[in-house]
Amino acid sequence: MTDYQQRVADLVARHTRDVADFPTPGVVFKDITPLFANAEAFGSVLDLLAERHEGGVDVVAGVEARGFVIGAPLAQRMGVGFVPIRKKGKLPGEVVAQSYDLEYGSATIEMHTDAVKPGARVLVIDDVLATGGTAVASCELVEKVGGSVVGFDVLVELAFLDGRARLERWPVHTGLVVG
Q1: Which of 42, 2, 3 shows the shortest CA–CA distance to 155?
Q2: In this predicted structure, what is the pLDDT of residue 77?
Q3: 7-14: long-range contacts, CB 8 A cutoff, minimum separation 24
Q4: How far is CA 22 from CA 14, 64, 69, in A?
Q5: How many angstroms separate the CA atoms of 131 and 102, rounded?
Q6: Which of 65, 81, 107, 151 could form a disulfide bond with 171, CB atoms 3.0-4.6 angstroms apart?
Q7: Average pLDDT, the chain
Q8: Which residues pair with 107 in a beta bridge?
Q9: Closest Cα partner for 60 from 50, 51, 13, 30?
Q10: Which pLDDT does position 6 carry in this prediction?
């Protein structure tokens, strides 16, 4: 583990709490809202993310909803634009969609067709990597409009769900790896 990775992991670990039986019985939810509530810690994480990607990103794409909380201020720090990736039906205008499977059913996410210029280097960001369905769909959306995914970053990876294996086409960076 590099010094950078250790610093991010330490900050995320100190400001993450476990919530038992959420959203369903038997699930232990990794809640990063305490990180967002601590301006100094959250700012440090954003600074570290921005430093790692300095000069290599044209736009940050944040996955609804906590990816917005991380992605928008990160984009601002990096001096690049921010693109929201939203649940189906939440964006006005012309969109491109990508569906993916969930444990019970499927879901669809969307992005504006003109949000990313062809060839743009895009960092996709979210809070947690679990099974990888949303992550893969998000990266594929970026590619559908001609963007190049330079990385998929998350603050927490639930390694026991093996979502990283589904993302082998893109570089994956995580703050804290659990399980």
Answers
A1: 42
A2: 97
A3: 7/44, 7/48, 8/45, 8/48, 8/49, 8/155, 8/175, 8/176, 9/175, 9/176, 9/177, 11/35, 11/41, 11/44, 11/45, 11/48, 11/175, 12/45, 12/155, 12/156, 12/175, 12/176, 13/176, 14/41
A4: 20, 19, 21
A5: 9
A6: 151
A7: 94
A8: 100
A9: 50
A10: 87
Question: Hunting for tokens 């927490």 — which residue is that?
Answer: 156
Catalytic positions: 66, 103
Task: Say if residues 135 and 167 touch (Cβ distance below 8 Å).
Answer: yes
* Positions of the chain with pLDDT under 50: none
Any residues with CB less than 8 A from the CB of 148 and at least 6 apart, and which?
A: 119, 120, 121, 122, 142
Structure tokens at 28: 């232990």
- Residue in the block written with tokens 């082998």: 168
Q: Would you state the pLDDT for residue 2?
A: 79
pLDDT at 1: 65
Alpha-helix residue ranges (DSSP H) falling in 92-178: 133-144
Token pair for 73: 């201020």
Query: CA–CA separation, 168 vs 1, rounded Å?
Result: 19
Burial of 3 (0-12, 13-18, 19+ CB in 10 A): exposed
The whole-angstrom separation of Cα 77 and Cα 106 is: 34
Q: For residue 54, what are the contacts with CB-CB under 8 A and spacing of at least 6? A: 78
pTM of this structure: 0.94
